[in-house]
Amino acid sequence: MIVFQVYIVGVFVTFANAFDYVVIGGGTAGLAVASRLSEDSSVSVAVIEAGPNVEDLPEVFIPGLFGLSLGTSLDWQYTTVPQQNLNSRNITIHAGKALGGSTAINGMIFPRAAKQQYDVWGALNNDTSWTWDELLPFFKSSELATPPNQFQTDAGVRFDPSVHGFTGRVQVGFPNFFFEQAQLWEKTVEGLGFQISPDLADGNPHTVGIAPNSINTANNTRCDAVCAYVTPFTNRTNFDIITNATVSRIIWSNDTSKDDGLVRAVQVEYILANETTARIPVGREVIVSAGTVGTPKVLELSGIGNSTILRDAGVETLVDLPTVGENLADHVHSWVNSFTSLNLTQDLLLEDPSFLTEQLALWSENRTGVLSAIPSSLSIIAPSDLFNASELDALLEQSRASLTEMANSFSNGNENLAKGIAAQFEHALSLYSQNKQLPLELNLGSSYVGPSALSQRPNRTYTSINTVLYAPLSRGSTHITSSSPVAPPALDPNYYAHPLDIAMHVAGMRLARRMLTSPPLSSTFLGEFEPGAEKTSDEQLVAWMRANVTTDQHETGTASMMPRELGGVVDTNLKVYGTQNVRVADASIIPFPVSAHMSATVYAIGEKAAHIIKSGK
Ligand SMILES: Cc1cc2nc3c(=O)[nH]c(=O)nc-3n(C[C@H](O)[C@H](O)[C@H](O)COP(=O)(O)OP(=O)(O)OC[C@H]3O[C@@H](n4cnc5c(N)ncnc54)[C@H](O)[C@@H]3O)c2cc1C
Q1: Cα of 163 vs its chain's centroid, Å
Q2: Where do the catalytic residues lie (predicted)?
Q3: The domain containing residue 407 runs over which residues?
Q4: CB of 263 within 8 A of CB of 305?
Q5: Structure confidence by residue, pLDDT tens digits, 500-515
Q6: Contact 450/590 with Cβ under 8 angstroms?
Q7: 276 touches 11 (CB < 8 A)
Q8: Is residue 600 part of a domain?
Q9: Which atom of ligand 1 is nearest to the CA of 292?
């Protein structure tokens, strides 16, 4: 039974019966875990989600309207503290506040990262169950793939069925149209020496290709976590979803004596839109899936975290776990954009109201046109694409020399976490020296993409190259500053705090420029708009980047899966240290950032979490 709204009168309301599993956050991983657990009809599962069900909103289900939900009530719009290395700017990190979480508002790009990066998760934990090989079954079980048709194959889509799932949940397919500039760009990148990817989900993404999308290709609509894990199962009477309900904290048992001192969750407290507070009893477990910013907030409000931070916020400490909210990593997004001689670009959707009307009609009539997909051509960059061997050696040597100092500086004084971050850096530098750490994604924007508002840029057509830092070494944090569940956290991704991040990113900007001005794409190039051709030195480029870059909304790591002696928050069964029955399943458990758009990876985490719980670990 799916309950999208509960109507409760009074201040404290307790459900009569406990739910075996209470999932906090009905987002990407949360719905995957909840739906999989509810396959067992003998258990009851409740999901508590802060946002509404928005599956009937055109800006959600029409792929090409991506972007319209940003800055609305469907978006948490988390704001960072002033970023020291970005001219003290506050950056807005978007995240879905709706059933489906960020998959209800994201760009639907659905690739996977490099095998070796997932293997670092296992290595950090000395546990081979968290490696590419062991995650692949969960990538597959999350996926209901539709292979490309002849038109898509002719357009350049490559697909390796051996790495995909065909009986899973998230509908994955390919666009039914492609912009001319994307096809020119792929040829350009190939001409620069890149291999064409056999499949961007095969764990070897150092290539160029057309990414899969999370899309229902039968009707060209977005397939988010609701489409995948809720809609097909509305007849389950053991699967309840409470929307518009913000969890304020977990309530613990007073009696810890029989549980080896581990605290035991017995209720979850939440606040409804009408400000009524309610509690839901927990039979077996709580799974926190509130996302990389939301999850540490819920843990800290519940008394699990750094006791000094909790005391200052007015929260009593139940478990002193000082690394909650630390190890925050995020992908940094920059651009090189240029004027193009091509007439048909996505710019027309914003610049020409009649074009938008025409495309909406096309989508409604037969699900075609530029609104019917978000075609994404991308290349994942290796260090050898950016530097010669001696340049790279010099950069890596500097990072080795400062390794301990940098790890300490990112650890908030916690010796264990300093060791954990140092271990991550060792892995990163080792992968760099094997050309396997992939620092950047360059993807093609078939329109203007950049920092200037519509009114501040020439009304022309554009080709842009999104240049995204994918293997950051900078680490930040997010913490509550108040016991109020509605107060925003102090969110500090600490962008560009590690010098290697800046070196990689600026080299990526140069490569993006090379792509725009190399044949055959160069035949459409009518001059760079931003950063601007006059900015030629690294110093000028970096100055522009500090003033303009933003986030790719791929934040990870704030409830990291690492051993406690390396500053972890959860173990490899995703259990929060110091608790008996609370786990985390979402992007926050990712201990070491990976070079991909995150949703496919987060779904795999949700699938694996359900598997772990079902197997009684
Ligand atoms: C604008 C945007 C574009 C993106 N584009 C892509 C893309 O193209 N491809 C890709 O793979 N990835 C993309 N991503 C990233 C990807 O979508 C996320 O990394 C991933 O979905 C995160 O999953 P999650 O389960 O960790 O969190 P979420 O999916 O965000 O789920 C967290 C859920 O918890 C809820 N919640 C939070 N706090 C509380 C609380 N106190 N009480 C109750 N509920 C709460 C939230 O409302 C949300 O529903 C994008 C993200 C954004 C925001």
Answers
A1: 21
A2: 554, 597
A3: 384-437
A4: no
A5: 999 999 999 999 999 9
A6: no
A7: yes
A8: no
A9: 26
Per-residue pLDDT reduced to its tens digit, 120-177: 999 999 999 999 999 999 999 999 999 999 999 999 999 999 999 999 999 999 999 9
Task: Tell me if 308 sits within 8 A of 300, measured CB to CB.
Answer: no
Q: Cα–Cα distance between 375 and 361 in angstroms, integer? A: 19
Instruction: Confirm or reject: Cβ of 28 under 6 Å from ligand 1.
Output: yes
pLDDT band per the 50, 70, 90 thresholds, residue 1 = very low
- Reading phi first (left if > 0) and then psi (alpha if -120 to 50, else beta), residue 338 is in beta
Longest dimension (CA), the chain: 74
Residue 592 lies in a domain: no
Residue 26, ligand 1, Cβ within 6 A:
yes
Whether 90 maps to a domain, the answer reads no
Is residue 565 helix, strand or coil?
helix
Residue 134 amino acid letter: E
Residue type, 587: A
The percentage of residues in the chain with a pLDDT greater than 70, rounded to a whole number, is: 97
Type of residue found at 125: N
Judge if the beta carbon of residue 590 lies within 6 A of ligand 1.
no
Question: What digits encode the pLDDT tens for the residues 349-395?
Answer: 999 999 999 999 999 999 999 999 999 999 999 999 999 999 999 99
Report the catalytic residues: 554, 597
How many angstroms separate the alpha carbon of residue 217 from the centre of ligand 1?
A: 23
3-state class (DSSP) for residue 347: helix
Residue 389, in any domain of the structure: yes
Q: Is the CB of 586 under 6 A from ligand 1?
A: yes
Regarding the beta carbon of 112 and ligand 1, being less than 6 Å apart is answered no
Cα–Cα distance for residue pair 77/71, rounded to 1 Å: 6
Q: Whose CA is nearest to atom 8 of ligand 1?
A: 107
Centroid of ligand 1 to alpha carbon of 612 (angstroms): 22
DSSP assignment of 273-317, as one string?
TTS-EEEEEEEEEEEE-SHHHHHHHHHHHTTEE-HHHHHHHT---
In the reported structure, the alpha carbon of residue 96 is separated from the centroid of ligand 1 by a whole-number distance in angstroms of: 5
What's the gap in Å between 206 CA and the centre of ligand 1? Answer: 26
Ligand-binding annotation for 208, yes or no, is no
pLDDT band at 445 (very low <50, low <70, confident <90, very high): very high
Q: What is the pLDDT of residue 254?
A: 83
The total of structural domains in the chain comes to 1
Given a contact cutoff of 8 angstroms between Cβ atoms, the answer to whether 228 and 36 are in contact is no
Q: How many CB atoms lie within 10 A of CB 558?
A: 33
